[in-house]
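hey m, so remember when u said the tokens were messed up on ur end? i reran from scratch. heres the input so u can diff it against urs
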Amino acid sequence: MTITQPIEAGRSRLAEAASSNLRVDCARQQAPEERLTSRMLQLRSDGLLLAVPTHDGRPAEIAPGEALICIFRLGPELLRFVSPVESFVSYRVKPEVHVPALRLTAPGTLEVIQRRQYYRVSLVGRAPVDVTVWPVEFDRQNRPQVAGEFHAPMADISAGGIGLLVTDEAFFEAIIGRQVWVRFRLPDETESLIFRMVYRHRRPLEEGRRYLVGLEYGAFIDPSAHAVVIDRLTHFVAQQQRESLNRRKDR
């Protein structure tokens, strides 16, 4: 089943993907058999900037007016949009470095074409895992500044994100509209993991003024480092899943 997200939700997700420079798999609408690879650069008021797509390691020849089918993964979802190329532009990577890019019309909707389901491990009743949360904001010179520090026990974990048990209302005021970074250590491990996270939801619990807060892992600037850490998390969750299934068989 394909789910279409409206313009407001779609733009928010596009902005998140562009800020992380996520990979995009593309194809021309008129020639979908030719697979192209690109990367998001920036979402601006006048459109979405993509690195010039490549095919077999070489830049593809794309003319303004051609429509591109673009697919990218954000968290557990595979998303798709179709958008025409408006023009070629120069994108500044650093003050002294510019790269060629395509400016696409910002898509009005996103289609969720796949939603990956993660096995979630509950940590309730186990040794508590303390999570440190840092909201981060940027000054006028785009320099990051920590805007507070919060601690909350982890309720559950999967290869897609974590759940926290939060009682402090100031937590929500601090993280909305800011980057969120967390640090925690998996059970039986000595090395802490640090992640940029994306706030997804909160759900009030029956035990009073407590909330179950869902955070999704954001992409690292270095995709290879991100993949290594996600592999560690996936291994931990898979091990817990096997142990849970073995316990059920023994009953």
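this time it looks ok to me. The two ends are 38 Å apart (CA to CA). if urs says something different then somethings off w ur setup not the seq
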